[in-house]
Design goal:
By secondary structure, chain A is an alpha/beta fold. Chain A has helices at residues 33-44, 50-59, 61-73, 85-99, 107-114, 126-134, 147-157, 167-170, 177-186, 201-209, 244-250; strands at residues 21-24, 138-143, 163-166, 194-198, 213-217, 239-241. The longest helix of chain A has 15 residues, at 85-99. Chain A is globular, with a radius of gyration of 18 Å.
Chain lengths: 253, 253
């Protein structure tokens, strides 16, 4: 249950005394998508380089969401054309399979592979860290994953969320302000009573611009052990923690 | 962990072999709103008849939702005017306070009383029954309560939901088909793989019309011990159970 501090508060710790909700980014922050997708790709597509396949699939994620949001912004209704991440994942998968020369894959195999995102393994510290934080705070997801994906993932990995919030609830993907402000609205608190915890500085910067507190979680091997990520602290974050256990330490849980 | 059977399968038990999700109505089915609201009314409004106050407040619930849905149906956007139950509860509360001659109540007391719906006690069988069902099924709420209300209630009462679904997610209240079909869509299953469990036959009938399975939960004292409710079985329900533990028995959990 103890986790060494890898970083320290970047200032503003006193301001955290009225924190009520911690919303977690999920892919990369709470679960290890690279390991999970690479293993499932190698299992279902014999001979494929699982790590390269996982990286290519994930690389299609931001452009796919951007495309949906641009289309929605061009429409009157704004939320009518919202697309679930399961569907975006499938359309990206089709292209990646083509790029990897996997042109004759059974549709049932494609569906099973697409649902690998529902079965991702938690980082080793996640369940214990979240369990500690849950005693003091409301803990929820704030992910671009759809609710079904996040719920099945939580059930499989034992993630003890108080509730599952998602782009699907707000009909907008991060970094749209509606997602960060939506968490505060759901719990009827000011944005400053919510912290986003994430392994991605761009996500945290967008949350901070909405008035949320931010907690950076180091995940140096998010892209695989062979591609270590720079996890240097950035001074604007409220907290910087090696992992979720260390975040619980910093918050006195 | 054992709960005696109070009813029996009303047919179609074999059809339940492919059940994947059980969505629970919450007020009356999982939590005891009458006891909870009566106690909080008596605590915060000395001299008031808590039971009568709770019944009057709850009686305003269906008309308030109907009014919002009629207004939304008259608008172009359809979901733009959706109102959270917390807000509906507050506007009903203002009227009930007036009717009970409580015309000089501090706004902070009103807010605390309104949040009594977030603090409702679970029926004694709920936590153990849900914990058993959760091992075999995805268990979620399907309530007209807002997400924040349901999440805080779950945290207070220890309700182990896999996820919190609500009218707020679907921007429509039960018995609108979008809510029942929305649960199936969230989990990407056919409506027949979802059961609604509820203590109210009208809710169950609306779910059944959408193709869901239905489980009736007896709550004879939903309106207080002095006003026993008819909990006779209705043959169209897939299952009839005395409580949530009995539902787990019937489903072999």
């Amino acid at each position: 249950m103890t986790a060494a501090l890898a970083g320290s508060a970047q200032g503003g710790r006193a301001e955290l005394s009225d924190l009520k909700v911690i919303a977690f980014d999920v892919f990369g922050t709470v679960v290890d998508w690279h390991t999970g997708i690479a293993a499932e790709a190698e299992r279902l597509l014999p001979g494929v380089d699982g790590s390269a396949f996982a990286l290519a699939w994930r690389a299609g994620y931001q452009p796919a969401m951007k495309s949906v949001m641009e289309r929605m912004a061009g429409e009157a209704g704004h939320s009518g054309g919202f697309t679930l991440l399961d569907e975006l994942h499938m359309s990206i998968l089709e292209r990646v399979l083509h790029d990897f020369g996997q042109t004759d894959i059974d549709p049932a195999i494609k569906r099973e592979l697409n649902r690998a995102w529902h079965r991702l393994p938690a980082w080793p510290d996640a369940v214990a860290g979240l369990t500690r934080l849950k005693k003091k705070y409301i803990i929820c997801t704030l992910s671009n994953g759809n609710i079904g994906l996040l719920t099945e993932m939580a059930k499989g990995a034992g993630l003890p969320w108080d509730c599952v919030l998602s782009a699907e609830v707000f009909k907008a993907y991060k970094p749209d302000p509606r997602t960060y402000l939506g968490v505060a609205a759901v719990f009827d608190v000011a944005p400053g009573h919510v912290m986003l915890a994430a392994a991605h500085h761009d996500d945290l910067a967008a949350a901070r611009a909405c008035g949320l507190k931010t907690g950076y979680i180091e995940r140096p091997s998010e892209f695989g052990g062979a591609r270590p990520k720079d996890v240097s602290p950035q001074p604007d974050n409220s907290l910087h923690a090696r992992d979720i256990g260390a975040l619980a330490d910093l918050l006195g849980c």
